[in-house]
Write a structure and sequence with these properties.
By secondary structure, the chain is an alpha+beta fold. The protein contains eight helices and ten strands. Strands 1, 2, 3, 4, 5 and 6 form a six-stranded antiparallel beta sheet that branches. Strands 7-10 form a two-stranded antiparallel ribbon. A two-stranded antiparallel ribbon has the order 8-9. The two termini are about 30 Å apart. The relative contact order is 0.15.
């Protein structure tokens, strides 16, 4: 029996269903299960995540549901557990399926205004959540750590086939960080943690449904963090009108303006002047930080996945 079938056996509603892989996402292994009881999302968790973080997902999604917001929910196993650990075959969990459509690139300013309004409502909804977060990934936005990892990768993997391409880009990133300086220190808040556009579910694939944001998905990264990191990462993804893997990525100010207005409308009030200053710096910080992580992993080949149809292994 495959690991998928072994895992599925722990959820009675899934046993009579058929599972099909969902290709989106570079971290977790995801399958859509269609069964008599409905549709479900079955996932094998990437080892980088501590299974304890499922308690964060339960706390946040219960709170969001109480606030009237749409959200995927964890489905307990037949034994009432939030996940099942199959040892060498991985940690598996099941989520309710929220029908809709995701996008890898922005389709219009209206779409981003809706996405940002949803994020604003999300932040407002969890502002009063009293929860001690557990199983968090340490140093997700620890910039000095990521830069040190990049320097180590450069020092240890000079024979790597990609080193000649990585080295000049890495030098540019390291110099840019020196010129930019650190972000202002502000109080962390509960954040989604990975607001790339593909983690926003929309009502449909074509207008007007494609401009109606329903909910946030991929909740493994829920954590207290700086708003500049949260929205900086969102804008890095959202304000590029092309796919993330395209060579002609750019930052579109019209998309930024639409998403800013949407966020303020959703949250209900604008950030403080100090927070606004941090947010502007946060965009460049996140872009450079993620670039540093990608460059390091291009040499270490230990974390990120890739689109095998577009890029050689």
């Amino acid at each position: 029996m495959s690991a998928l079938e072994t895992a599925r056996a722990h959820w009675a509603p899934l046993r009579d269903g058929t599972a099909a892989p969902i290709a989106s996402g570079l971290i977790n292994e995801t399958h859509l299960v269609e069964a008599a009881a409905g549709r479900f999302i079955l996932q094998r968790l990437h080892p980088v995540f501590d299974p304890a973080m499922h308690h964060n997902i339960i706390a946040v999604t219960e709170h969001l549901a109480e606030m009237g917001m749409v959200t995927p929910r964890l489905v307990p196993t037949d034994d009432g557990a939030p996940f099942v650990d199959l040892g060498d075959h991985g940690v598996w969990r099941v989520l309710t399926h929220v029908p809709g459509h995701t996008f890898d690139a922005a389709q219009s300013p209206e779409q981003l205004a809706s996405a940002a309004e949803l994020v604003g409502r999300f932040h407002a909804a969890v502002d009063d959540l009293d929860h001690v977060f557990v199983g968090l990934r340490v140093g997700v936005h620890d910039t000095p750590k990521h830069l040190a990892t990049l320097r180590e990768a450069l020092a240890e993997h000079e024979p790597h086939r990609l080193y000649p391409a990585v080295r000049p880009l890495a030098d540019t990133v390291l110099t840019a960080f020196e010129e930019l300086g650190p972000l202002p220190a502000l109080t962390p808040r509960i954040c989604h943690g990975d607001l790339k556009l593909s983690n926003v579910m929309f009502a449909g694939s074509t207008p007007p449904l494609s401009s109606q944001a329903i909910c946030l998905i991929d909740l493994d990264t829920l954590a207290p963090m700086a708003l500049a990191h949260e929205l900086g990462d969102a804008w890095r993804s959202w304000c590029n009108p092309n796919r993330e893997d395209d060579d002609d990525a750019r930052f579109d100010l019209a998309l930024f303006e639409a998403s800013w207005k949407g966020y303020v409308a959703g949250y209900g009030q604008p950030p403080s002047p100090e927070a606004r200053h941090a947010l502007l710096l946060g965009v460049e910080h996140i872009i450079l930080e993620l670039t540093a992580r990608f460059l390091a992993d291009a040499l270490q080949e230990s974390y990120f996945g890739w689109d095998a149809e577009r890029f050689a292994t």
